[in-house]
Amino acid sequence: MASGSTVKLAVWRNGEEKSISLTVGEFPKEREARASMPESGPTGTDVPKLGLMLAPAGQVAGSGSEGVVVTQVDANGLASEHGFKAGDVILDVGGKKVTSPADVRNAIIDAHKNGKRTVLMRLKSDDAMKFVAIPIARA
Length: 139
Description:
This protein is mainly β.
């Protein structure tokens, strides 16, 4: 829905249905981060961009309080090739729990610095838990 649109929401509270009108807002830019590696710098150039927009789960309604939510996936990006979709929740990267987009980026950088060619991500997708191995270094 477009920002500024109004939506009616029915909720059950104390055994009664109540109707609430909400206005759709825009997700604040400062709370989003690209899970991408710098083009140059201390991590090198062979750490690929994931092609994801992420937000802490606690800031996305219905996502719970653990992990980082995928809010957008670049159709041509590495994450899309590996089956990521909007709404997936990344719980840990390389065995490290993540709570922010920076945690995801740092776990990938750490794995790359430690010579790993892939990093394993645990994510909740729909109602299933799955593991996805993402290549982080070129052979």
